[in-house]
Write a structure and sequence with these properties.
Low-confidence stretches: 8-30
Shape: elongated
Distance between the termini: 87 Å
Mean pLDDT: 75
Helix content: over 70%
Order of helices and strands: HHHHHHHHHHH
Oligomer: single chain
Structural class: mainly alpha
Radius of gyration: 29 Å
Number of helices: 11
Length: 253
């Protein structure tokens, strides 16, 4: 009779014991990753390949930061943020939509630079016609040309003043890290300038609506609530997204 009473709970008890035993089994069978550099003197090419893999893994982990630092993503996302705030739509479009659009636009803008990097450095390296260090130097050339084209000398000199380094005589003397830092400052300045110009028409519309409401004695009605539909109507009528996208892409031409 006692067996009949406890029979329905046997499966539950067995499942509970199995769950409690999982951590011990996991520790007993924990996978390990070992990087062995033994025999590097006999086979230095294997050590070099291992270091290249570690370098590529480091680059992949820093890929989001690199994308924001050396591409057109910063300028585009700053302008889109100003546009959304000027229209007063809150979180519409969502951040994911704006970030995705900025990424695709950055891919289009950076395509000539990326194609040149692939043809001059990545493809020869993959075909073993070029060494790793030489490929890195070749890949830097198109990227540095893009960064120099959109970096102001004043923004670049700020970091030389901070680090108290000697002023470079030629472009080849400028380290890529310093160039990327100056490029970021220049992109922020350009993005804020474009954002200010985008903000002005919507600000004028807000002032007009606010003046009309004040003249009508509707002081308790928020002007932003009344002006937002007119902003959306104006933006749609002038095909604002196409104009904004084309203007941002042409600003890098």
């Amino acid at each position: 009779m006692n067996a009949r009473i406890f029979k329905p709970y046997w499966k539950t008890l067995a499942l509970t014991l199995a769950i409690l035993a999982l951590p011990a089994l996991a520790l007993a069978a924990e996978p390990t990753l070992t990087l062995n550099l033994a025999g590097g003197q006999q086979q230095p090419e294997k050590v070099s390949m291992l270091l290249e893999i570690l370098f590529l893994l480091t680059v992949l982990s820093l890929a989001p930061s690199i994308v924001m630092c050396v591409t057109s993503f910063t300028r585009i996302i700053v302008v889109f943020s100003f546009l959304r705030q000027a229209m007063g739509t809150g979180q519409m479009p969502p951040n994911q939509i704006l970030a995705s659009l900025a990424i695709f636009m950055s891919v289009v803008i950076m395509y000539p630079t990326g194609k040149k990097m692939y043809d001059d450095a990545i493809n020869p390296y993959m075909e073993e016609r070029m060494g790793f260090s030489e490929a890195i130097k070749k890949a830097e050339i198109p990227l540095r040309e893009f960064l120099f084209k959109h970096t102001r000398e004043k923004d670049l000199s700020i970091f030389y003043t901070i680090t108290k380094m000697e002023q470079p005589k030629t472009k080849d003397d400028v380290p890529t890290i310093m160039l990327a830092s100056g490029f970021m400052i220049s992109e922020l300045k350009t993005g804020f300038t474009i954002g200010f110009l985008v903000y002005i028409p919507f600000l004028v519309l807000d002032m007009v609506v606010s003046s009309i409401l004040l003249a009508m004695g509707m002081m308790m009605l928020p002007p932003a609530m009344v002006s937002m539909p007119f902003k959306l109507l104006l933006f749609v009528m002038v095909d604002g997204w196409s104009l904004m996208t084309a203007s941002l892409v042409n600003s890098f031409a």
